[in-house]
Amino acid sequence: MKKRLNLFCLxxxxxxxxxxxxxxxxxxxxxxxxxxxxMKAAEEGGEMPVLPAYKQIHTMPTDLTEVTGTxxxxxxxxxxxxxxxxxxxxxxxxxxxxxxLWEAMATLVVIVGFIYTTVYFCKLIVxxxxxxxxxWTNVKYLRxxxxxLIAIFFCAxxxxxxxxxxxxxxxxxxxxxxxxxxxxxDPTFILGFIALLAAEVxxxxxxxxxxxxxxx
Length: 216
Description:
By secondary structure, the protein is mostly helical. It has helices at 2-44, 97-129, 136-170, 188-215, and strands spanning 54-61, 70-72, 79-81, 86-90, 176-178.
């Protein structure tokens, strides 16, 4: 039982880390590119260039036969049609202060939620490795993990909704439309639901055990 629960926890952690790995990689690359541009400007003695503001958007093609964008095939120089689903698009106007504040708050909650959830994952694994499995402490940990994951999902969803709304006011896309359904493909929400379900199963088992002990 302990080995199975450890394996389950490790699989959930792996799925959780994979679900955020893309955004983490993008943030790292943006930081590296910004650092390289700053170093180059410092070496050449020029001013720091104004970097374009990019926003991540979710879109869905409305007509698969229409060319909405192209990429260059470096092997032969040809242009290939591309149908973007999740893309980084240059934002032609700065967001309003209120929208930027909400987006920053959502990002902060995601970061805090990531740390919070990871801590309780580790605590749960420690409990299991101490042969403490069916215990109310584990129920508490699972509930906190579940609600933490769901909070991460909804804050990320709010960020996507704000970005899509902002760009939809100033950008009209050819052959494609802004879409929020793709955000639900993020496994964080499902993982949170599974953790809450596991917590309730543990709680039900503990209640039944306590009732049997009282009856005996």
